[in-house]
Every structure is written in structure tokens, then in C-alpha cells.
Write a structure and sequence with these properties.
Helix 3 runs parallel beside helix 6, helix 3 runs antiparallel to helix 10 and helix 13 crosses helix 14. The protein folds into two domains: about 220 residues, Four Helix Bundle (Hemerythrin (Met), subunit A) (Up-down Bundle); about 120 residues, no CATH class. It is built from 16 helices and no strands. It binds iron/sulfur cluster (SF4) (2 copies). One iron/sulfur cluster binds next to helix 12.
């Protein structure tokens, strides 16, 4: 489990368990949920539609055997049901707007009953942007619940009436892989529900989502030229686990995602000129297009393109291997600096 998240979760549990530190614990819980939701936002904002219905670990056991789309639906449907139908005894966020139609979900349940191909088919039907908006509404709504919670509420337990209300809501499938959830939730007090589903459940599923997206990126990069149009090496990039590279549909390079229509000007320019990369362009040295407009900040990357022009991609990869062996760094600027000629000199010295 992600160390930072699990430590925060442990600390939060300990803080809410004591009256004097309860408020601090709730504040930490909200902070943890915000951190975790940030991962979801990055995934939704940067991955292509098909990423949300792929099952790269379909045969595995565990949360990572599902899809990104299913994971989002499942985390927040469970939270919505528990927060509203069980704890607050009011209407779920799902019904506050026409969410099901917007999301295009064929079900209102948690999805536990779905299996194999059924999970992929369900996920392919979802409108991910609408689903993301629903997730955020559920999070905001639960955050309000958490902010209004008092220490004495933690020991609140649930009754047969609560169990009946959950059954009648139709929010949990009668399938044996789903129905157990009702007993599971009703067997806990509010403190237990803060753990599952309001914190630990998020951590487990979001970690699984990270595994899924890492694998999708790894698969997308397989067999694809590891040198980006601008001269960066995807094999040496610190974003590797997030990005399939700009020669694939899993391009999450921050420069591309911030560009109009998410198209990197360097990639577009190369394609327009019919070039493999900027390193093949006669205008490279003086070019200020796209990523190169960063000037000093991106001279290190231009230095790599110039190095490829002279020595080729394999030689650049060998030099980058050397540099990574010698130094602990993330961005190439940390080693090549901000001056074009100085950067080139360092690359030459490390051949
Ligand atoms: S700046 Fe453009 S060319 Fe360079 S890695 Fe990012 S998307 Fe690819
Ligand atoms: S003009 Fe600039 S961005 Fe376009 S291919 Fe040449 S070096 Fe790359």
C-alpha cells in the first residue's frame, strides 16, 4: 500500500479515536481524500477514452483486475449509498440530478455483481467525464457529512430497519457477490464506515487504478520509438508510469496536455513536415516552436535533439543510461543545465 497514504490513514484513525483530537483527525481525513481525488483527476484529465474500459489484469485476483471506469463507479456508488441511504437516511447524490442518464450507466448498483467481460462492456458504455463529475459531487457531499460529524456519532450502530432500507433502495444487487455488502456495512459503527468505505476503500481502489494505468502505459510504449519528437527519451522520463509517450494515444506529457486541443506543437510540426522528430529538422538550432519556446528551461531537451542529430538515438540512450547510473535525478535539466552548448558538452563528455 502507498506508504504516504497508509500512514496518513493510520494517523487519521488514531486521531478521530480520541475526543480531544477528533477535529484534527477529520481535517486529516479530508486532506487524505483530497490527495487521493487528485490522482483520479489526473487520470481522468489525461487518459484516452479506451483506457477506461481496458482490463490489463483481467485474470488477476484483486481490485486491479477491473477497469478504471468500473473503479470510479464502484468507489463512489458505495460511498453515495453508505453516506445517504445508510447514515443520513436521505436521498443519494445519484438522484439529485439525472446522473444515471448523464453517465449512461445501465445499473444503479455498486457493480459487485458484474463479472469478466461484463465489467468491460459496462465500462465502455460510461461517459467518463459525467462519471467524474458525479464522483466529485459524491465526494463533496460526503465531506459535508464528515465536517458535521461529532465524536459521539462515531459509536452509532445500525439496525434491522437500516438493513431493510438498504435492500429496498435497490442499490445493492441480490447477487451473492454483492448482497454481503449490506451485512458488512450494517455490522460496523460510523467509525468503521469512515475506514470502509470513506478512506481505506478509496486507497485500495485508487492504488489498483494506478496499477492499471501503469500497465496500460507500459503496453502502449511497447514496440514504439522511445524517442519523443522533441528529443526526450521516454525510457528515461520521470513520467514513465503516467505516460505512453507522444507517439501513442496514451500521451500524458504535461506539455501536450496543456497545449490547445492537447496537441503538442512540436509533434504537430514534425508530422506536418513529415519528419521523424525535431532532430531531423534543419531549423532545430534556432527553433522556438512549442516546447522549445521555454528557452533556457528547455535547452537541455534541445541539446538532446542536437545530440541525436549528430550521433543517433541509440547513442543518446547510452549516454542517458550513464548519467542515470552516475546521478540521482528526475528531469534532464538537473544535469544538463540551462545552456544549450553546455548541455551538449555534458552529453559529449558522457559518451
Ligand atoms: S514536449 Fe511534445 S514532443 Fe516532447 S515529449 Fe512532450 S508531447 Fe512529446
Ligand atoms: S521547426 Fe521546430 S518544432 Fe518544427 S520540426 Fe523543426 S525543430 Fe521541430
Amino acid at each position: 500500500m502507498n506508504k504516504e497514504w497508509s500512514e496518513k490513514n493510520r494517523e487519521m484513525q488514531s486521531l478521530i479515536g480520541k475526543k480531544e483530537s477528533f477535529d484534527e483527525g477529520i481535517a486529516l481525513l479530508l486532506e487524505l481524500r483530497e490527495d487521493l481525488f487528485g490522482q483520479i483527476t489526473s487520470i481522468v484529465n489525461t487518459y484516452p477514452k479506451e483506457a477506461f474500459f481496458q482490463m490489463p489484469f483481467a485474470k488477476a485476483k484483486g481490485y486491479h483486475s477491473k477497469t478504471l471506469g468500473y473503479s470510479l463507479w464502484h468507489i463512489f456508488r458505495i460511498e453515495d449509498i453508505v453516506a445517504h441511504t445508510l447514515i443520513c437516511q436521505d436521498s443519494q447524490v445519484l438522484y439529485s440530478e439525472d446522473w444515471n442518464r448523464e453517465i449512461n450507466s445501465p445499473i444503479i448498483t455498486t457493480g459487485n455483481e458484474l463479472k469478466g467481460e461484463g465489467i468491460a462492456e459496462f465500462s465502455a458504455a460510461l461517459d467518463v467525464r459525467a462519471l467524474y463529475d458525479y464522483c466529485r459531487s459524491v465526494m463533496d457531499s460526503t465531506n459535508e457529512l464528515l465536517k458535521n460529524l461529532q465524536y459521539k456519532d462515531l459509536r452509532k450502530k445500525f439496525t434491522d430497519d437500516d438493513r431493510e432500507r438498504l435492500i429496498e433502495s435497490g442499490s445493492v444487487s441480490k447477487d451473492e457477490d454483492a448482497l454481503w455488502l449490506i451485512d458488512y456495512w450494517c455490522g460496523k459503527d460510523v467509525k468503521g464506515l469512515i475506514q470502509m468505505p470513506f478512506s481505506r476503500h478509496w486507497i485500495m481502489h485508487i492504488e489498483a487504478m494506478c496499477r492499471i494505468k501503469n500497465e496500460l502505459c507500459r503496453k502502449a510504449r511497447k514496440g514504439v520509438d522511445f524517442i519523443a519528437f522533441c528529443g526526450l527519451s521516454c525510457n528515461h522520463c520521470f513520467l514513465k508510469e503516467w505516460c505512453g509517450g507522444c507517439r501513442t494515444s496514451y500521451n500524458t506529457c504535461s506539455y501536450a496536455t496543456c497545449s490547445p486541443d492537447r496537441v503538442c506543437p512540436n509533434a504537430a510540426c514534425c508530422e506536418e513536415k513529415g519528419l521523424d522528430g525535431c532532430y531531423d529538422c534543419d531549423s532545430l538550432a534556432g527553433c522556438l516552436t512549442g516546447f522549445y519556446s521555454g528557452g533556457n528551461d528547455t535547452n537541455a531537451v534541445k541539446a538532446m535533439a542536437m545530440f541525436i542529430r549528430k550521433h543517433g538515438k541509440k547513442e543518446l540512450a547510452a549516454v542517458l543510461d550513464n548519467l542515470h547510473e552516475k546521478y540521482d535525478f528526475q528531469k534532464i535539466q538537473e544535469i544538463l543545465g540551462f545552456d544549450l552548448n553546455e548541455g551538449l558538452k555534458i552529453l559529449e563528455e558522457n559518451r
